[in-house]
Amino acid sequence: MIRILADMPGDAERINAAIGGAGRLLDVARGFNADDADIDCLIVGCRRQCPREMLELLREIERKMPWVPVILFQQFRESATEPATLNRLLGALVIPRAHQLRDLGLDWKAVGARLGLHRSTLNRKARTWPGCALTELERIGADQLVAAFVTEHVGPLFP
Hints:
The protein has 159 residues and is of the alpha/beta class. The chain has helices at residues 11-18, 52-64, 86-103, 108-115, 119-128, 134-137, 142-153; strands at 2-6, 23-25, 41-46, 70-74.
């Protein structure tokens, strides 16, 4: 199960929509409990510096389940060459899902309709990340695409 944690109202829902509703929201106030043990991946979105409570929850998850990949997105970056935005992350998240739907046999128009996006929007997002047209995206293997996503968007929580 993909779990989603965000510091701003509505962000978790937008992230979940970008991954086709496959996630479940994780509540910082409730903390981490036995119901959350089925985490396959955790997506964390922060528009500002992560609040102390959220960092404590992330440390607890990392301590109890070190094998769970965490995608940590923060609106601010001190050394990034490109500005980090929630829109950039959501645009990147939609590409693996679109690729998955295409692999299931849907044409790009049907993929776009399923994700609530026009085909031209999908094409624009694919040109932004991973930098190719939809026709080229079809030829990329799912493993290669996920590896590229991980390289760009996933990293260790704490050095």
